[in-house]
Specification:
This protein is an alpha/beta fold and about 325 residues long. The chain is about 35% helix and about 20% strand. The protein folds into two domains: about 160 residues, Rossmann fold (3-Layer(aba) Sandwich), CATH 3.40.50.970; about 130 residues, Rossmann fold (3-Layer(aba) Sandwich). Strands 2-1-3-4-6-5-10 form a seven-stranded mixed sheet, with helices on both faces. It has a five-stranded mixed sheet with strand order 7-9-8-11-12, sandwiched between helices. α1 packs parallel to α7 and α3 packs parallel to α5.
Length: about 325
């Protein structure tokens, strides 16, 4: 298990860089973290708390970006994306301004706060915008690396952080620039996952290996999906399963479908596992933690394993 949440790993790295680069600015919408407390104390000229006013945070960020600043905006994931969608579209994506939008609590990251705090559409919505990339973080090592990368990006990016403490899957020497990583080798059968579901997919693949079913595992951590690399990895694949804590429409599975279809790989059998639009938010009113919500939608380990085995049978 990682010793740091993704949030702290990300902001710690940004803070270390900001101490040497006075152009880095952080705008928070009433959100905190230990390293942000350091920002406020040690770098007050580089830190702005706008309060619960996420749309205003994006507008301020756009003005700072126009003046040459490297700007980060931070809030709970649904509020920095959905609440600010028009501002992000007009004041960053359309204008080509390199703002980093940092959202914490991807998927069911705030399980007991109800559907207003669940973030199940962000990949679909954000990847529909021009001039923006998405980093769907799967561990704290990646969070730190993307924090550093974001300080030098010339394009807008959305960083979706998980709130839960998850195992580290990578080491500090990992190069995340290709946008996806093979965590377990495979030949003709793969699990494709993103965010917190990457840990789940890897654990399931290892258990199924003991039962004689060999599956590769691909972590897609950047969108748009790197089509050339993805197709090279799955060139011999006959069956794939995508797994995401996200609505199926427009998410990881949709991105995989697009790449396969657009490159004449329609013969590959892809099973998409996520939240269906028919389920909507009805299950989100079930309380008891993230495990309860995942089970409600068939995303618990037992349900996933059953569906995966059935697809690869």
């Amino acid at each position: 298990m990682s010793s740091l949440p993704q949030r702290d790993a990300f902001w710690n790295r940004v803070f270390d860089i900001a101490k040497k680069d006075r152009n880095i600015m952080v705008i928070t919408a009433d959100m905190g973290a230990p390293s942000l407390d350091q920002f406020r104390k040690d770098l007050p000229a580089q830190f702005v708390n706008v309060g619960i006013a996420e749309q205003n945070a994006v507008t301020i960020a756009a003005g700072l970006a126009l003046s040459g600043k490297k700007v980060f905006t931070y809030a709970i994931a649904p509020f920095i994306t959905l609440r600010c969608l028009e501002q992000i579209r007009v004041e960053s994506a359309i204008m080509g301004l390199p703002i980093t939008f940092v959202g914490v609590g991807a998927g069911f990251g705030y399980p007991d706060s109800g559907p207003t705090h669940h973030m199940l559409e962000d990949i679909a919505i954000m990847r529909a915008l021009p001039n923006i990339i998405i980093h769907s973080i799967s561990d704290s090592v990646m969070a730190a690396a993307i924090g550093e990368r974001s300080c030098g990006l010339k394009i807008a990016n959305y960083v979706r952080l998980d709130r839960q403490l998850l195992p580290d899957l990578y080491d500090s020497a990992t190069d995340f620039s290709p946008g996806l990583t093979v965590l377990k080798e495979g030949t003709d059968r793969f699990l494709v996952a993103t965010g917190s579901m990457t840990t789940t997919a890897l654990a399931i693949a290892r258990r199924l290996e003991d039962r004689g079913l060999s599956l590769g595992v691909i972590d897609v951590h950047t969108f748009p999906l790197n089509a050339e690399l993805f197709l090279r990895i799955v060139q011999s694949a006959t069956k794939l399963v995508s797994i995401e804590e996200h609505f199926l429409a427009g998410g990881l599975g949709s991105a995989v479908c697009e790449v396969l279809n657009d490159n004449n790989r329609g013969s590959v059998q892809l099973a998409r596992i996520g939240l269906s639009m028919e389920q909507g938010f009805t299950g989100c009113y079930h309380y008891g933690g993230r495990d309860v919500l995942r089970k409600q939608y068939g995303l618990d380990d037992a349900s996933l394993e059953q569906r995966i085995v059935r697809h690869f049978a």
